[in-house]
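pls ignore typos typing on phone
pyridoxal-5'-phosphate + seq
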Amino acid sequence: MNINHTITATTPPHGGDVYHLARTLGLDLADLLDFSANINPLGFPPGIAGAIHQALSEIVHYPDRRCLELRRDLAAYHHLTPEQILLGNGSTELIYLVARALSPRQALIVAPAFSEYEHALKVAQVPVAFQITSEGQNYTLAEPLDPKGADLVFLANPASPSGVLLAPELLLAVAAALDAAGVYLLLDEAFIDFVEQASLKTHLARFPHLLILRSFTKFYGIPGMRLGCLLAAPDLIARLAAVQEPWSVSTLAQAMGRACLQDLDYMARSRVLVSQERDYLLAGLKSLPGLRPFPSAVNYLLVKITRPDWTAASLQKALLARKVVIRDAGNFRGLDERFFRIAVRRHEENKQLLEALRHSLT
Ligand SMILES: Cc1ncc(COP(=O)(O)O)c(C=O)c1O
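k done
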């Protein structure tokens, strides 16, 4: 039977679509060196395997739909209460839940941004406006935000796809102004674990309209497991929980989440490795003709091609011939065909990427 792999015409494209790519190219998954999805280069915390093994006997039951033990562990980790936490099947599920459950009249997205915000709002039939940030500001917010009549704002810190952190005073001022105006702020901190001290979680109790989105996918290297959470005021969490599908977080995902939070050594090693390798990649990219990387704080780098003879698409194709996959970032609203994004991986792999780029560009 010939299976059509197109999911839908309107589903936004993403990095990390390696199954499709390997099938199309007639390769094994393991043949591809994937820089298009931003996943911790250390892989997942080693304790996960034992946790899964232990939890296996429980899969004859439905999962704990309240995710109580994981919420308790997360509360202890983030210095919050379990009532301030809602788990989901990846943070993407929670983006769709917020768009649907809060019934906003109008939403504003600070762009460029993760494309699922816009898609979720469209599916929920919410009108969307955009605030496009500029290259001069490294594609992150640089001044107070005018919600332009919106009652729900989507903003990522660090910015996606530039990886640049917002100035802390500005972020606080934006959160305070939106909250005072009764505007919900969905602050996407999917990558903040790499710079945990920059999280706005310590101010959560001050802002009843603030929703902080977190993901286990990136930092703990488990995109295939699907686990994310929202941090917000208890009444807001209860309102969202009341309309969430039951059992969206499996027993194994809950067990993995708990195991992730125990491994402080893995967390520390991840931050050190990513910081070192990001510096190595940045220096290598700057030494190549016609590339301008942005000063990311996390495990991915946005790069602009500043010479006229290449586009992200042509570079992507050239690298694919060497089985290296990069993310063409031209489809992010506010960017164009000159932008691509790469993940920070292990040293040998980063070296391979730089060599492949050098071979193509020089
Ligand atoms: C900025 C940002 N937020 C959220 C997500 C969703 O991640 P997940 O659903 O795997 O938690 C992504 C995924 O690429 C992302 O880039």
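The first helix runs from residue 18 to 25. Residues 90-92, 114, 156, 160, 188, 190, 215, 217, 223, 228 surround pyridoxal-5'-phosphate (CB under 6 Å). more later
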